[in-house]
Amino acid sequence: MKRKLEEPSETETRISFVDSGGHLSYRGVSIHDMAKHSTYEETICLLLYGKLPTRTQLLEMRNKLSAHRRLPAGVVALIGSLPHFAVPMDVLRTAISAMAMFDPNEKDNRIETLLERGIGQIAQATTTVTTHNHLRNSRLPIEPDPEMGHAENFLYMLRGREPEAWETKALDVCLVLHADHGLNASTFAARVTASARADMYAALTTAVGTLKGTIHGGANQKVMEMLLQIKEERMVDRYIDEAFREGRKIPGFGHRIYKVEDPRVAYLRSVSKDACDRTGHAYLFDLSRKVEDTVCSEKGLFPNMDFYSATIYYALGFPVDTLTTVFACSRMAGWVAHIIEQFELDSLIRPMGDYVGLLNQPYVALEDR
Ligand code: COA
Fold first, then answer.
1. For 149, which DSSP code?
2. How far is the centre of ligand 1, averaged over its atoms, from the C-alpha of 256 (Å)?
3. What SS3 state is found at 157?
4. Which pTM was predicted?
5. Which residues pair with 17 in a beta bridge?
6. CA–CA separation, 50 vs 258, rounded Å?
7. Is the pLDDT at 102 greater than 60, yes or no?
8. pLDDT at 238
9. What is the tens place of the pLDDT at every residue in 241-251?
10. Residues lining ligand 1, CB < 6 A?
11. Known catalytic residue: 306?
12. What CA–CA distance (Å, rounded) separates 264 from 138?
């Protein structure tokens, strides 16, 4: 597929649109249509190439992803050498950073190379997450299955059994919905790194490091920890009241941009209900609803996308400390698209700090201080 990009300015982007009124679109296509009709593979094509793919282009993307899934042996060895208590987001960040050293063309920033490299990184992120999870549990990693689609293979590599159709669909919808979101913190961080003409691995490493933050992507793990701590519906009021009294934020609520409900939440809420019902975790969904009702009625805050995705990933079998890596695996598509857009723009992002400190201070000699 040929890409077409006219010159955007430093803060302009043509990749996704988001506004306070709850609108989100990828390359102009509404998130509602994407959630209802699309797949993650199609979403990658849309974000990277600017257009929905033809049947042939979609098949090409599927084939490329499956061809790139294996990790370099050195990266597997590196993951295996990390302490067993290593944090999965740190492992993903480290693996992506190391990946640069296994790419003989690391410095080649031509668009065609970047696209190929980016697709490779999207594929390999899932293998990194599952490989680490097996190795830390003293198990052999499960080899990717080239016949499977992206979401199906991700679950297969995690659990070693072919997922049921509903499981693949549930994960796929999440991957579609998390794939991009304007100039959020991790995407912006990635663009800053790319704007300095660093390489794609450096920019993705920056992005993963930023997403780990607990008020950014790290919130989904915090949501799950909170639900597991609350345990029962009757404990919700006490937990929330205490958190408010102590000035603690409730993970999975509030948003910097949206002043209405996040448009992705309705889909995630319904997928969460289905996934929890099917896996014997119905109580977790009921608990989530109770938390949502309480936080909404007491503070007028809406859940964000991390709130219901947490229980979906948990119900699908992702360990609690890997939840943010699942978000990262999806957001890889958006990051790659933004990094390439920034490379094409080739303009350093260097904001002027709003200096509010002292001026004209005398230099006092050491012995006189
Ligand atoms: N729990 C409790 N109160 C919250 C809240 C939450 N999750 N999110 C926002 N608020 C409150 C703030 O305390 C503040 O109240 P105040 O005006 O009485 O001081 C008000 O709402 C505005 O919050 P603010 O922190 O200024 O909003 P923001 O736009 O800077 O922050 C987030 C947005 C996402 C950082 C914030 O909502 C948050 O930390 N949420 C929890 C973490 C999370 O889910 N992150 C994922 C985001 S997609």
1. -
2. 8
3. helix
4. 0.96
5. 25
6. 25
7. yes
8. 96
9. 999 999 999 99
10. 215, 219, 249-256, 299, 301, 304, 306
11. yes
12. 37
